[in-house]
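Table S2 (text version). Query chain:
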Amino acid sequence: MDIVRIFRWMVRAALALAFVVVVFGAFVRLSDAGLGCPDWPGCYGHVSVPGSEAALARALERFPGSVVETRKAWIEMIHRYLAGALGILVLAIAVLAWRHRIKLRQSPVLPTAMVALIVVQALFGMWTVTLKLMPLVVTLHLLGGMTTLALLAWLAARQHPSHGSRHAIEPERPRVRRWAAIGLAVLAMQIALGGWVSTNYAGMACTDVPLCHGTVLPSMDFGHGFSLWRELGVTAAGTPLSNEALNAIQWAHRIGAIATVGVLALVGLLTLVVRSVRPFGVAVVVLALLQAGIGIANVVHVLPVPLAVAHNAGAALLLVTLVMLNFRARPN
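Corresponding structure-token output:
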């Protein structure tokens, strides 16, 4: 097997693994297992979850006052193992990209940047534990994972640079390219809002849909809800975060969802007349509508973990599809 084919399969494997890491990270968060291990990168001082009586005794001696919850600890450690495997794979991709840059005919800058991003991600993973699930840190950790996924999607698309040669004359492509970029920016903001909802445990701040507490404009406190530098569940002053602050977080996410679906529907409509990107545009619209439906179902069914994880997976799939659309909408 030649190096080009090996590189292509490695990139595809990294993209698939990054998707798994992002989705499993959501499961960690939604299972309340983010502090399943009180230290980092190990778990109670071990490379795996302590299981024997002696290991449990040492863990409790080292972390007095802790309660070893084996299930949550394993959930957290599996996520760390997956993230570590992804880091090793991306590093291998970067090494190959540099060593065979002439044969691969592409710059190694993007794989190198991803290595740096994963190092930063590891730091955010550590800070997530040491700062006790601080919402800003956890949200940035989520966004770092999504960014890694998006860059791998772009790198995977780049392995087929001749995608548009059969459709050179497409006068509507520049417009699609502009709106696809706008759609990607809007989706990124909505993912950030969704992350802020999740990391502040505001998913059920509004228990009805489409209204919130029976009204379009519930009582809201944006100042405290979107105060970034604070601990989980409290304001910057240390007082408990009010229901009004949680309402503001959830309401902003809902308004963002409406705007996002509208923009992505327009993007999909514009792709209908551009043959080379039409399948991606249709997929974007389908996934956006599915995401909206899953979001509503989460409220109706009181945020069951499988549905909530599916909502995160849908956001990741939508991001990858939109990245692919942006790549294919470029000039030939």
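Notes on Table S2: The chain has two domains: 1-161, 166-332. The radius of gyration is 22 Å.
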